[in-house]
Amino acid sequence: MEVEKKKVSAGCPVEAALNVIGGKWKGIALYHLLVDGTLRFNELKRRVGNVTQRMLTKQLRELEEDGIINRHVYAEVPPKVEYSLTEKGETLRPILIGLREWGMANAFPEFLEKNSTASNDK
Amino acid sequence: MEVEKKKVSAGCPVEAALNVIGGKWKGIALYHLLVDGTLRFNELKRRVGNVTQRMLTKQLRELEEDGIINRHVYAEVPPKVEYSLTEKGETLRPILIGLREWGMANAFPEFLEKNSTASNDK
DNA sequence: CCGTATCCCTGGAGATACTG
DNA sequence: CAGTATCTCCAGGGATACGG
User: Fold this and answer.
1) Is A84 left (phi over 0), alpha (psi -120 to 50) or beta?
2) pTM of the complete model
């Protein structure tokens, strides 16, 4: 299958950066990778939580495209694929930490009020 | 009209933070507000660039909902509405600066390669 | 000037089943 | 185990026109 390049035009650097880490599951995935270092697909999937294989795969592929993560495939059976941050991905660490800090300090309490009933169960 | 609360379930703080600033036009809008301080609607619209009134309005309303920006309406004719960051919004400054720095250093060159022909014209 | 109302349409995203 | 392949659904987002 052909790998289509995403043609997202970013008008400014902030937008460009958000295009890289702003995907629906990219934030959490990246965060777990920067905490745990290296993770197999299913380990990552388990940590991210409520995500389908298809979605997680897509997001990881995009991150790989952008040079943020490494995808190491072992020629074994059963298959084994490990994901880890690249050097470029490591440069995101302060930003991701910053986002996490801010989220804990500001967004989380507020969002908990809004979702009185619904947890993120499915 | 009733203002619907967004019921986005964030599983972690990083996600929660991205839910706040990850909207399509929020990054640029916030960045211009933190640079210019206070802007009228059309000034902001002009700076953001290729955005419709409807979209910009929606994004600004969400930011207002989240307590990130202030919306000051002057009871004049012709109407005049000014937007500015709240105290809470100011706490995003280091993150936005970080995103901008990272975008300039990493994402922008790469994205320019991908769009060899297409600029962000319409 | 600063929005809202309406219409429409693309693609993001989930469920499910299948394969190397 | 780690993915693709299909199908489907609906919300995000754009164009346009109208209103206070």
Assistant:
1) beta
2) 0.83
CA neighbor of A25 nearest in space, from A54, A1, A5, A3: A54
Structural fold of domain A13-117: Arc Repressor Mutant, subunit A (1.10.10)
Shortest alpha-carbon distance between residue A20 and chain B (Å):
8
Cβ-nearest to A22 among B22, B49, B111: B22
Mean pLDDT of A67-80: 94
Q: Exposure of A50 by Cβ count < 10 A (0-12 exposed, 13-18 middle, 19+ buried)?
A: exposed
User: Does the beta carbon of A88 lie under 8 angstroms from any beta carbon of chain B?
Assistant: yes
Tens of pLDDT, residue by residue over B67-97, are: 999 999 999 989 999 999 999 999 999 999 9
Which residues 9-68 of B are in CB contact (within 8 Å) with A?
Answer: 9-22, 27-28, 30-31, 48-50, 66-67
Helices (H), chain B: 13-21, 26-36, 41-48, 53-65, 87-90, 93-102, 108-114
Q: State residue B49's pLDDT score.
A: 87
Average pLDDT, chain A: 84
Quick: pLDDT tens for A4-17: 444 456 668 899 99
> Nearest by CB to B17, which of A48, A102, A114?
A102
- In which element (H, E) is residue A43 found? helix A41-48
